[in-house]
Amino acid sequence: MNILHISDLHFGPPYVPQVGESLLRIARTLEIDAIVVSGDLTQRAKRDQFIAARTFLDQLPERPTIIVPGNHDVPLYRVRERLTNPHELYCEHISPELNSVTTIDGAVIVALDSTAPRTAISNGRLHPGQLEFCRKGFADAPPAAVRIVVAHHHFAPAPDYLRDQTMPGAKRAMAQFIELGVEMILGGHLHRAYIGNSLDFYPGNHRDRGIVIVQCGTTTSRRGRGREREKNSFNLISIDDHMFHITHYLYFDEDQGFAPFSRYLFPRPGRRFVEPIGGGDDLR
């Protein structure tokens, strides 16, 4: 299966229309089976911004779409609304579900709302009930199905000079994900891409069960950071029985479009690379 992974659209002042149009064009040319949107669809959780985001999502290819809210999708300065009904507009225009389980072509995708409007506005948080929701979501997954978690906030820091603080309780969540056999986590929030493995940060109880971490940059806004400052990106994830293939796309102003910038290969659990005579890569 192929997953289009986009994030941090930030409809409102930071949104870049020509980049959004470019994403819609290239999305129609890619062979995708599902779309993941890992949060921050709006800049300030205003009704008109949600309407614009909904209009944009409706123009993407008609595929199963997994969406989670980000911290920008709850009111920041409208304090009373944030404390009493923070997801009202998100649920009205984007999705009534904040946590969801989706099964597609041999994959089970659990999406978790990591926003914490009343306690951790920026860094997010997962509560024990959500980890239990995750456990139940994977309980009936076929043994061969790939298990994927989607959340807006990051469980592992990007390995660069910005030194972002990770989500409170991230290690606890990672430990449970590893026990549940999660193979990949998709997220956003950092406004630059990071693609790696959880073993770089959390050794955990099972050294043979690292989780592939796929963070997406900001796909359509001016809010890129670090190495993707003033840049836009998305990921295309291809999954088969043996391997994860992840292609990181960047937007190039000179071409007015997205193009592949880097590629990553990760063997799935129980598989490994072997090098046959004559060079090249193979798996077993």
What is the strand and helix layout of this fold?
Elements: E1 2-6, H1 17-27, E2 34-38, H2 47-58, E3 65-68, H3 79-84, H4 88-93, E4 100-104, E5 107-111, H5 128-139, E6 146-150, H6 170-179, E7 184-187, E8 194-197, E9 212-215, E10 233-239, E11 243-252, E12 257-267, E13 273-274, E14 282-283
Parallel strand pairs: 1-2, 2-3, 5-6, 6-7, 7-9
Antiparallel strand pairs: 1-10, 4-5, 8-9, 10-11, 11-12, 13-14
What overall geometry do the principal axes of the alpha carbons give?
globular
**Quaternary structure:** single chain
Strand arrangement in the largest pleated sheet: 3-2-1-10-11-12
CATH superfamily: Metallo-dependent phosphatases
Based on the coordinates given, report the CATH architecture: 4-Layer Sandwich
Strand content: 25-35%
User: How many β-strand stretches?
Assistant: 14
Low-confidence blocks of residues: none
Distance between the termini: 20 Å
Tell me, rounded to a whole number, the average pLDDT. 92
How is this structure best described in words?
The two termini are 20 Å apart. The protein is built from six helices and 14 strands. The protein has helices spanning 17-27, 47-58, 79-84, 88-93, 128-139, 170-179; strands at 2-6, 34-38, 65-68, 100-104, 107-111, 146-150, 184-187, 194-197, 212-215, 233-239, 243-252, 257-267, 273-274, 282-283.
Structural features:
six-stranded mixed β-sheet, alpha/beta, Purple Acid Phosphatase, chain A, domain 2, 284 residues
Structure described in brief:
The protein is of the alpha/beta class and 284 residues long. It has helices at 17-27, 47-58, 79-84, 88-93, 128-139, 170-179, and strands spanning 2-6, 34-38, 65-68, 100-104, 107-111, 146-150, 184-187, 194-197, 212-215, 233-239, 243-252, 257-267, 273-274, 282-283. Strands 3-2-1-10-11-12 form a 6-stranded mixed beta sheet.
